[in-house]
Amino acid sequence: MDLTAEHRNLILTANKVFGEDKWSHTVVNQTLDFVEIIGAKCCTGCVSFVKVQLENGNFHEDIGYYSAEESTKGLSIYNARVGSAINALRRVLLSFGDKIEKELQLLQKQIDLKQANNIQKSVIQSDEQIPDKSNVSIKAPVSHVQQIKCKSELEPNKSTNQLIKGL
Fold first, then answer.
1. CATH second-level architecture of 21-103?
2. Residue 52 contacts by C-beta under 8 Å, 6 or more apart in sequence?
3. Model pTM?
């Protein structure tokens, strides 16, 4: 999951539904659940509580959790903290009703369509980079290559017959 894109999508959706500067969010509490180093990997789990408050004073608070596995301890802790806060923000925004959920689904469809178009464009561009002609030249079609017939039975010669008789 791309945490930065997820966070941006949540903020854009909340701004669209509630209005810019008409809501705020706060990480109320955040606790590391575990940090384990297994071989060359570091695994971290984190829990976050996020509060979203509207301009009129209404608010909701919810919990989020995220576990991260990275090559370094610092990166693992960072991703677990950010991921759990984003997960909590998503959950608390969804508690405000269906409008947020519908906007998030609409935004996701637009992103999926844009990504599909980008993939299609990159495939077309890579096809254009392939040269039309190959460096290998064919001098004669295969149908014009002379065929050599082989006999399936061995023709015994005198030396072979003499060896067999001697046994």
1. 2-Layer Sandwich (3.30)
2. 14, 23, 24, 25, 59, 60, 61, 89, 92, 93, 96
3. 0.67
